[in-house]
Amino acid sequence: MAWKENLSQEEYDADIETATNTAKEGLFTQEQLDTEIGKTKDLFKEYISKEDFEKAKGEYETTIKDLEQYKPKDKSETEIELEKIKAENKIYKAKEILQNESLPSQLMDIDFEKLHSENEEDRKQVVESLKELFADEKFNNSFKPTGHKKNDGEMTKEQFENMSYKERMNLFKTNPNLFNTLNN
């Protein structure tokens, strides 16, 4: 609506009425507004009522209370300490089993779960640890002669009888005459 100067009262009243009707109608007609309000009321009916909401809330809270019995309880310091002692005892027993079977107790220090890792470096690390461990064990458990005595070719029958099978075989290879003499 454009600005007009020197309007009569009738023109002024007509312009006000037109402006009022336009404002009332706005962007939608009354019929369009009624349709949209009806749709909104229909959508609102799909929402849960306050009574139903309170009922569902009560059931939910009851379910939570029932499930809390299965929630793990916090452990006391004594229980935590007892678990640590049990874990240490398991490690001790496992090391004892390894030693009883003549296996190196250092096997306990290797993280075997890394063998199943997707990371190739982890797998290689475990294999290298095993190689080093068993190489050391081979060396430590290998035959190491003791009691090195000068053998002037003299050996008593008693010394011969106290020799191990390996020592006798070694004597047979190195000095077959002496072996035959003492073996008879």
UniProtKB/TrEMBL annotation:
Keyword Coiled coil: yes
Keywords on record: Coiled coil
Coiled-coil region(s): 50-95
Organism in which the protein naturally occurs: Clostridium brassicae
Protein name (record): DUF4355 domain-containing protein
Top-rank taxon: Bacteria
